[in-house]
Amino acid sequence: MKSTAAEQRPASGQASASRYLQLADRLVIADGLTAGLSYTVIADKLGRNKSTVSREVAAHRVEGLYLPYQADAAAAAARSRPKQSKLVTNQRLRKEVEEGLAKRWSPEEISHRLVKDFPDDESMRVSHETIYQSLYFQARGGLKKEVAQSLRSGRTCRKPNRKPGERYQRFVDPMLMIADRPDIEDRAVPGHWEGDLIMGELNKTAIGTLVERTTRYTMLVHLPGGHDAETVRDGLIATMTTLPEHLRGSLTWDQGAEMAGHKGFSMATDMAVYFCDPASPWQRGTNENTNGLLRQYFPKGTDLSIYGPEDLEHVAQQLNGRPRKTLGWDTPAERLRDLLQAQ
């Protein structure tokens, strides 16, 4: 059974849920005019201002009659549409954003980096929210779908195997715990690194990750022979000895079995190794965050043995060329360059 105008109208004195008049509102206006009610009374029924009703009737009266269905169609056609995004009208800006996303930069990183790269060009400004909208609303001039897929995936939580406060001696060689590490929390002194492994399918393959705490500079360790303690030790030594001595301060790692050779590593590099408390990934927060970024390149569940040293170097270069909020939108490569030039 068809609903009547009276059934569609809101209760007297109750404001309409929409900013704009709906068809039900227009039917109430038409009924009120037919009954000879004043604009004030009709407005009260709608829960709106009298001027809203008077403007509506004046705008949509045809030969002295107010036709609600015709008025509703005309209003919908006349309603202003959203203006086009800057990423549609400014092709140069769009190209810069797409290149940033292709390098797996986040919208926020792109937005702030544009200010640094084009300090005098106001046309090269776009908020991270606009980038997100262009990614998610393709019909409004969104960016390419394959570019949108460059955004990082959500992070997952690790399940602790033991109580956080529980501690035991994991290796034959005594461990130096993070509580024994010199106070480097202000990150003022460069050369202190955090490390970990990112694991491949069924934990059969791995890549070593090293991040310098001051610059966030990342190095990746190729582990083609597996991730046993000896292989990891030799890979870390080969990577760390490429650095000047003043950038070899210390290494912080978790208590994974791959670090059983930590004493041999320390003897070869003259770097102390400090171990985190069990189930405390936040004690290597810089490395944990970096590993999250690396999962854009090395998704979970993939065979990491297919990546050679050249592949790892390419990924590290991309990551080190990525502007970071914590660095004032400088890149890790720029900060490391400044460190080396200051020596």
From TrEMBL:
Q: Which domain of life is it from?
A: Bacteria
Query: Gene3D superfamilies this protein is in?
Result: Ribonuclease H-like superfamily/Ribonuclease H (3.30.420.10)
Integrase catalytic domain sequence ranges: 178-340
PROSITE patterns of this UniProt entry?
Answer: INTEGRASE, TRANSPOSASE_IS30
Coiled coil stretches, renumbered: none
Q: Which UniProt keywords apply?
A: DNA recombination, DNA-binding, Transposition
Under the heading InterPro entries, the entry gives:
Homeodomain-like_sf (IPR009057), Integrase_cat-core (IPR001584), IS30-like_HTH (IPR025246), RNaseH-like_sf (IPR012337), RNaseH_sf (IPR036397), Transposase-Integrase (IPR051917), Transposase_IS30-like (IPR053392), Transposase_IS30_CS (IPR001598)
Q: One matching Pfam family, short form?
A: rve
What this chain does, per the entry, is described as: Required for the transposition of the insertion element.
The UniProt family comment states:
Belongs to the transposase IS30 family.
PANTHER family per UniProt: TRANSPOSASE, TRANSPOSASE INSI FOR INSERTION SEQUENCE ELEMENT IS30A-RELATED
Q: What is the protein name for this chain?
A: IS30 family transposase
Report the source organism. Answer: [Mycobacterium] wendilense
